[in-house]
Design brief:
The protein is of the alpha+beta class and 253 residues long. The protein folds into 2 domains: 90 residues, Phosphorylase Kinase, domain 1; 122 residues, ATP-grasp fold, B domain (D-amino Acid Aminotransferase, Chain A, domain 1, 2-Layer Sandwich), CATH 3.30.470. Strands 8, 9, 10, 11, 12, 13 and 14 form a 7-stranded antiparallel sheet that branches. It has a 5-stranded antiparallel sheet with strand order 1-2-3-7-6. The protein starts with 5 loop residues before the first strand and ends in a 17-residue tail after the last helix.
């Protein structure tokens, strides 16, 4: 079978041309990176777990009426998604102080925020994805004011959904990051949730013990990243049959 054309390769995923126009095959790698790729490793099974978990969360968004790019999972490491134009921003929603926010503002990690805080970073690895304001976004034309209103609404709706799902399995949703895509129906533009939702892009703590179940396990050398992600998948009832191992990718026709 001929391999499909590679469109893009990032730190955690590779994108290939999809089988139909307007679709993309998203392949989840086992690569783990932190601190803007200064720390790297390959964690066997991570891509399988992230693929399964992202499918679970995206289907959940669809079920509650939040538009996203997910079409269907193809196999253990790949999913078919709708092609979209990615808004060049990382949208971060924080419910508790952690990570860079705690460091920047001198807030004790784990402090409950008075309300969800939405932050924006410019998607640029060379610059280290710097924090930007809505003034920057408007001035440089990265998104219109209507876009920003829609992005804020999407981000908060995703937060409501994910917080409830996680709370039901005794996991605290500390914060998460999403990306937003533009799709066009004729002359009409819509914004949708794109990329992935997985422990790679969320901070997840056990409610009872505070144990970290996300990529901070890798960042801070706290143990097995695969074990942490497997625990999240187990609690949510999302576990691939036969374990998390899979060999080289098999692309669809």
């Amino acid at each position: 079978m001929a391999r499909r054309k590679k469109i893009y390769e990032g730190k955690a995923k590779t994108l290939f041309e999809g089988p139909e126009p307007g679709t993309i095959v998203q392949y989840f790698k086992d690569d783990a990176t932190a601190f803007n790729a200064q720390k790297k490793d390959v964690i066997e099974g991570k891509g399988v777990l992230n693929n399964m978990l992202s499918e679970y969360f995206m289907n959940g968004l669809t079920n509650v009426g939040i538009p996203n790019h997910f079409i269907r999972r193809l196999n253990m490491r790949e999913q078919l998604v709708r092609a979209c134009e990615i808004v060049p921003l990382e949208v971060i929603v924080r419910n508790f102080a952690a990570g860079s926010m705690a460091q920047r503002l001198g807030i004790e990690e784990g402090t409950t925020l008075p309300r969800p805080v939405v932050e924006y970073c410019l998607k640029d690895d060379k610059l280290g994805d710097p924090l930007v304001t809505e003034e920057h976004i408007a001035a440089f034309g990265w998104a219109s004011q209507q876009d920003m209103d829609d992005i804020l609404s999407l981000a908060l709706r995703v937060n409501d959904f994910l917080s409830g799902v996680m709370y039901a399995v005794d996991i605290k949703l500390v914060d998460f990051k999403i990306e937003i895509g533009r799709v066009y129906d004729g002359d009409f533009q819509r914004l949708i949730v794109a990329d992935e939702i997985s422990p790679d892009s969320c901070r997840l703590w056990d409610i009872e013990t505070g144990k970290k179940l996300d990529k901070d396990v890798f960042r801070r050398d706290l143990g097995s990243l695969t074990d942490a992600y497997t625990e999240v998948a187990r609690r949510l009832g999302v576990m691939p049959k036969g374990g998390t191992h899979m060999t080289r990718p098999t692309l669809v026709n």
